[in-house]
Write a structure and sequence with these properties.
6 copies of one chain form a homohexamer. By secondary structure, the first copy, chain A, is mostly helical. Chain A contains 10 helices and no strands.
Chain lengths: 188, 188, 188, 188, 188, 188
């Protein structure tokens, strides 16, 4: 693994618990490299396991949100939280899943200008509310989302992704985690 | 379990997976009641398991932060996020752990006025920065915290609790989760 | 009287003008103790008299707002202003008047989640606008309040309480006034 | 008295209690006209009396703050609260007392650019903190003000004026009180 | 030319390029004095020429906005940006063009309270959105403005003036440019 | 020229004045395509000429700021203003000039985390202050910048670029100008 570009040393594969090593090797096999978030969190095994179990529960689950839509939520809310790691890494994933190479850069700066469907616009409006002023969430927000075809389980999914990245953005900013160079041009 | 006071039905114990039922029963045995957060999240087993694994990793771990100090972080940042559930439930725990019955109400409104040690004040200043403007975290913040005796692992612990409750507050606000009546007067 | 917990010495009863001493003794008789706000302001007799004359004109007046509703306004706006004294002291009074022991803690953190009637919700929406962005008050706000049964005198009453506590919260924060221990558990 | 330019009718002199009429006539004699704030509040006699007793206690008191300095505080904080009545009326008074006809317009827009002494700049910095984020007031603010020659009673005076106009600005915005035409050009 | 009241020396007429000298002399002939903005920018000829070419293109153009309406936009947005030079200088011009001597002081503090027509209120609402949160501009804003009789070219004109003074306010704040004494009382 | 992706039709080359057509053709020759900002503004010839004269005066001038440093200012402040056009187009130019393909994406999200020299960090801190709270600029800011080797002319250059893009970002948001597809991957 590379030297840490952040405030804490990145874990070395040989020193992490077996299950975490396997988890990371599988990711490396698929991605071609080890995203820094894995090496940054692996030094705290219990937190690593919980973090990625949560991540997988929200991001890998098959539901009404497409893979690209999930990444839209991550990119928009991470932009609002000024998280370099999450914007760059998940913009890459959004490009790959959406096959729209320009979309991520638009959403990262101002999702209101991005080339998305009205239903996705409503999804992002709500995700941003969860990210920035969740105390104002009201039943009216659910009514609006239902008018775009989302049911209450979908609303939970949208909100939970925004909530999870509220955590994730803060950990990346705390540790000064930087994106791997590979992410910047992936899927362009 | 009680009827949901929020936007989603609370899970019923008989319908949840065995490991989650056991987890909840153990909590009930200790607390004397089932805190709503358990019943609210149990309808999503994978998220429940990740959430409480994360919670336990941060809140139950023995480290340089006392149990009361961990709860101070939760109460202060949840106040900033206007999360009724987390402020009320964790104020109860802060009263219990600190044996200072007045402290939690002070910290929930304005931690700067609370009766805490300078080291705890520095801890809360940093936790609030993680909660509200994590993109501004700088190396200088680490220097300040070290001057109060915290090492870099302690800083991670402080920040990670604030980050985890950024998630937790948003889930509570999304689901409109309300605190059990028992919490309000516990430890007074 | 107790030693000051704030930045200025609390007045001693024997040193204050006669009318102020009588005012304070009457409060003490009713409450069982002397709330710190009386001892904190008594060192400035002219300001003391004006402050409590204003307070009484707004809070003791019989009008369309119940005693509990007046206290709801105080607790919600003092929460927004992060005033420990006012939130704790008036939460006590709200518990006493409303006989709903859980309400004050909810309103202090996020009145949108509190168990209040729609008319009270509209009242609090307006009070918070007075507290935080009064320059945006428009005729439309009056229309909304009238639709909930408030007439223009009621609107004045709601707004004037919010305005008075804009003053009160700032004086408490300036002097670092802390609530008497008695308030925290009163009415629970 | 003129017709109300605001949301509530202005009181007519013949209908107000004797003491209030005398108060207003005395003001009229001195100013040459009846400032709208008197006619706007006179319809609520108890509030009128408390308001002006408070006003007089803070603004007419002889202390370390000159009359012009008191008005500087009013103009700066009322500008921050976007209160047309208070900015226009007290800019007039600031011009009269300071004999510096340009100062008020500068302070109303940005006191940092106004032609004031360093001690007055420190006074205004603190007054603005009271007006906009009083929960952050710290002992360090007192140290700074002492370094400019203010003692703790002076700090109270500065803060109390800012606090009183937090109330006053909100009442003016609530009632949509507009300044008398006379104020705009007075003292230029 | 007078000595600079700001952070950079004001240009002297004899030292500026011929076209700029002529431009300034023409302004002086019309106004009776040289507004500081001309002397402040003349030390950078290329920027001077572009700045005033832009200014003239927006402010001198005959279009659906009256001269007074253009100045309303400048005063309102410059107030929001706390720019002393622009508020004072353009308030003078607004008084001259509108022949309403009280209007400018109202708009500078809170345009919502100013004595303007509904169409002008809509114009100012939009100009303020351009000034303070242009990323939220939506097609709905255009619909609202059209309902007040503005076509899309008018919307461009409104927005472009607000955008140009976003630049102008920042240059004035950067250089600490102060208004000439003449402006304060002009047109009262 | 392409069809407008924004709210106003893009000018067609054949319909614009001769000097503007030449200007645009020269840009096209150099860039290989016509950036949308040229076609969007060309329908207003006088504004076009002033805009690009200003742009050239600030961005093409040889001074203490390298071409890459000028673009850093544009990208950071345009990110703060959520301007998709300016972030995407000038990130391309920053990549080309800096030959650091990762820098622009970092600066667009959070310049505090970007791989820049301390002097560039100070430059960006100041540019962001100009962009977001120019009324707070103080002499101390100049002292800080001088300690990094910038003289007062350099400070003007930094601030003027931030001020110009305050205008530019607002025009792009007003017209809903979108970046040409070519920009997104240029220089990666």
């Amino acid at each position: 693994m590379p030297q840490s570009p952040g405030r804490y040393p990145l874990a070395e594969l040989k020193n992490v618990p077996e299950d975490i090593r396997e988890h990371i090797l599988k990711v490396q096999e698929k991605a071609g490299f080890i995203p820094n978030v894995f090496a940054a969190l692996a030094r705290r095994p219990a937190e690593f396991r919980a973090f990625f179990a949560y991540y997988d529960a929200l991001m890998l689950k098959e539901n009404a949100l497409s893979k690209a839509e999930k990444e839209m939520i991550v990119v928009a809310t991470s932009g609002a939280n000024n998280c370099v790691y999450c914007v760059v890494a998940h913009s890459a994933m959004l490009r790959v899943y959406s096959k729209q190479p320009l979309l991520a850069d638009q959403i990262a700066v101002n999702y209101r200008k991005a080339d998305v469907a009205p239903r996705q616009r409503a999804m992002l409006d709500f995700a941003m509310k969860v990210a920035t002023e969740s105390y104002k969430i009201s039943d009216q927000d659910f009514v609006t989302l239902r008018s775009h075809g989302f049911n209450d389980e979908d609303v939970w999914d949208i909100g939970a992704i925004a909530a999870f990245f509220a955590l994730s953005n803060r950990m990346a900013n705390l540790t000064s985690m930087m994106p791997n160079a590979e992410f910047y041009s992936m899927g362009r």
